[in-house]
TrEMBL record:
Family affiliation: Belongs to the phD/YefM antitoxin family.
Coiled-coil annotated residue ranges, if any: none
InterPro entries to which the protein is assigned, alphabetical: Antitoxin_Phd/YefM, YefM-like_sf
The name this protein goes by in its record: Antitoxin
Species this protein is from: Neisseria musculi
Gene3D superfamilies for this protein: YefM-like domain (3.40.1620.10)
Pfam families in the record: PhdYeFM_antitox
Protein role: Antitoxin component of a type II toxin-antitoxin (TA) system.
Superkingdom per UniProt: Bacteria
């Protein structure tokens, strides 16, 4: 597994995408691991693949619907006066709750 710093990934995003197609990439920030990038092909047969790929109407349509819904909600409510970090934390908590309740 290749390791890449967050700043290197940001500055060389195309390289990150190309590498992920070949092998998982461990992303670090301040010398600490923060995430792993994997290709959709590597996720096949996992719970995450079921969440992302096997949607009725296809993955692209599902993503467009989800992103469109999120953008519409954001345009209507914005962050409701919250700081960006608080809005981000709330969004992650919401995702974690959904995953735990499945």
């Amino acid at each position: 597994m290749r390791t890449m710093t967050a700043s290197n990934a940001q500055n060389n995003f195309g390289d990150l995408l190309d590498t992920v197609r070949r092998e998982p990439v461990l992303l670090t920030k301040n010398k600490r691991p923060v995430g792993v990038f994997v290709s959709l092909e590597d996720l096949q047969g996992t719970y995450l693949a079921e969440m992302l790929i096997e949607k009725e109407g296809g993955y692209d349509e599902w993503v467009q619907a989800k992103v469109g819904k999120s953008l519409a909600r954001f345009q209507k409510d914005g962050t409701r006066g919250k700081a960006a970090a608080d809005a981000h934390t709330d969004a992650l908590d919401n995702i974690r709750n959904k995953l735990q309740n499945r």
